[in-house]
Design a protein that fits this description.
The chain contains 27 helices and two strands. The protein has 566 residues and is an all-alpha fold. The longest helix has 24 residues. The C terminus is likely disordered.
Length: 566
Amino acid sequence: MCRRLDGIPLALELAAARLRALSLDQILRRIDDRFQLLTEGSRGELPRHRTLRTAIGWSHELCTRAERLLWARLSVFAGPFDLEAVEYVCVGPDLQAEGVLDVLGELIAQSVVVREDTAAGVRYRMLDTVRAYGAEWLDALADTGRMRRRHRDWYMGLATWCELDWSSPRQAEIAAVTDSALPNLRAAIELCLETAGETRLGQCLAGTLWFYWAGCGRLTEGRHWLDRALAPAARPDTSPHEPPRASPHEPPHEGARHDGSRLKALWVLGYVAILQGDNTTAARTLHECREEATRTGNALAHAYAVHRLGCLALLTGDMPRAERLLRSAIGSYGELGEINSNVLMGRAELALSLVFLGDLDAAVALCADVREICENSGERWARSYALYVHASAAWTRGRLTEARALLGEAVTIHHTFNDMVGLALAMELMALVTAGEGDPAEAAVLQGAAARLWRSVGVPLFGSATFGGPHEQCERRAREALGAQAFDARVAEGRALSQAATVERAPAGPRGVSASVPPGRSPDERGPARDRETVRDQDREPGRGTDRETREPAGSPGRIGGEAAG
């Protein structure tokens, strides 16, 4: 209750007085209507101080007309906002853009608005109680609907810009900006979904944020909005607004333009469902997306659906199908000129399928391709998965020092973005590497830490036997080596670790590595010239170039600790 009332002494005093008639839970349920609820103070108080509304109204009376107007309009922001958002949303004939900064400064001086320095830059916010008072005034001005639409338009534009800029050196900044904007993005999606004729805008916004849902630890939230946006009960769409295209390469076919937002929401929902281990929903939505994309001629949505169906095949253990679908999607991306983090992830996922098929040389070469592109463009998120796949190949070959170095770098990137899927996968593989190094106790701790991370994702290891087999064998061998009681204690120790403490268990470099061997390379690799030749060969057909007859043994569920573990 203290948090909901912003710690305002008068509000807390009035709420405490209500405890004579209501329970704490009853007060909390009514707190949204705080100005009606908190109307009685002590009989000895001055009348002006006997209600929360009149107390805040006193400050309101001291404001100029422009300050009151900006106060009311700022109430549409559901969370922190920046100056650019204020200048877009709040300006109008009666509040000029050139004067907004001065008016905002006066509201800050009067503590109506709070200024904060954040990872995303300078942000402003209002206490909930102050915001609620402004919202009442905005209603009285009959301007709430217009201001909420302007707010929605700004945050749709922000989400589109963040998506386009995600595959760039500013990736960490984009993650911070999106995280700061999350309360306002929620409000924007909510407005779309509750307004007749604007469902398509809600689908567009929920789909545009795929990078945040999947890459920044927000799978549950993304699933919530995508499910709502695609629910059969969603209001019929007759909106005249045209949402932004998913990509400048999206075909101009009329059906594709009309269905593009829904198709994007479908493949993004399929992607999120895969990561949560919900294969039934993933298969249903991705097949629907592929069929509708074929019908409407939307080649880009079709490519994304095929891509994610390839991922589904990968996690369900059908590696030949995974390889075929992922190659098809990557080929389509090339024809459409599509290049972004999703496309790079497709190459990393193809490389992982090749690891499981035993084509380790091709997998490593493909990872090198992805890493080179990422290094040149400043992209880090897809790079972290290329590092993980490369580490998987190294573990399969028994190159444990190399695998540890690659994982250390991947974990650092995953932690930067709060990528829970990437962190969980990396810690699972780190446990296998550690077991192969002969440290079952530390392997058990890492498995416990991974189990804690999976709780925020969904089904552990996606419910996949392909990923689950090595985990189970590692667990069984560690339990045998330590004894059941000691093993359970070490797993419990890992489960108790915070995310930051978990990351500290993954050293940035391999143990005892030679200074002449850079991280991610083993001494017997042939060097940059070979990598460049392989990359050129694969520009035409990713992952090809290794004779199937010379493939090394796959990183199958029956292997623990790679070749070195026997």
